[in-house]
Amino acid sequence: MKIRLASPMTRDSIVDGPGLRAVIWAQGCFHNCPGCHNPCTHNPFGGFEMDVDDLIAQLDSLHLQQGLTLSGGEPFLQARALAAVARAARRRGLNVWAFTGFTFEQLTDRKNPGWADRTALLEQIDVLVDGRFERDKRDLSLRFRGSSNQRILDVKKSLALQAPCVIEEYMRQAM
């Protein structure tokens, strides 16, 4: 199985979730949020293609990282491939975060095409930052998100309750 990436995996991020993290940058996004900080990831034909097994093998080189973050672009446009990567990351003891322009409600709506693949990815994610970036709600004091409409969700609880469960600790402003 192949995946389209915007860049090689970032190995040492401290801004894409708590602790030292690796980040996978998915290529392709149709949200086109005005003010997006990664517009170069929007073109679905940009970036480069990689075999998912090769990307998973790169996880073995991670030693100090506590987690893996899926960002982009829009990770849920490549949900099947990233579900395999996230599953492998969890087997290696990493927690998994994902950033998406979709809301939890959109991702879990069974009427939307691709629901099964999105659900398979959600089941491998610990924390989801959901919602489009909205420039008029931009707030640099927020932790792990760019605008105040975006939520930081406990995915396991959200899936169990079939409703978004916000992690209040992360929703507070940064010091």
From TrEMBL:
Write down the InterPro entries for this protein, in alphabetical order.
Answer: Aldolase_TIM, NrdG, Organic_radical-activating, rSAM, rSAM_sf
Q: Which Pfam families match?
A: Fer4_12
What are the required cofactors?
[4Fe-4S] cluster
One annotated GO molecular function: metal ion binding
Gene3D superfamilies given in the database record: Aldolase class I
The EC number(s) attached to this protein equal 1.97.1.-
Name of the top EC class for this enzyme: oxidoreductase
Origin superkingdom: Bacteria
Keyword set, alphabetical order: 4Fe-4S, Iron, Iron-sulfur, Metal-binding, Oxidoreductase, S-adenosyl-L-methionine
NCBIfam families for the chain: NrdG
Q: Which family does it belong to?
A: Belongs to the organic radical-activating enzymes family.
What's this chain's function? Activation of anaerobic ribonucleoside-triphosphate reductase under anaerobic conditions by generation of an organic free radical, using S-adenosylmethionine and reduced flavodoxin as cosubstrates to produce 5'-deoxy-adenosine.
Name of the protein: Anaerobic ribonucleoside-triphosphate reductase-activating protein
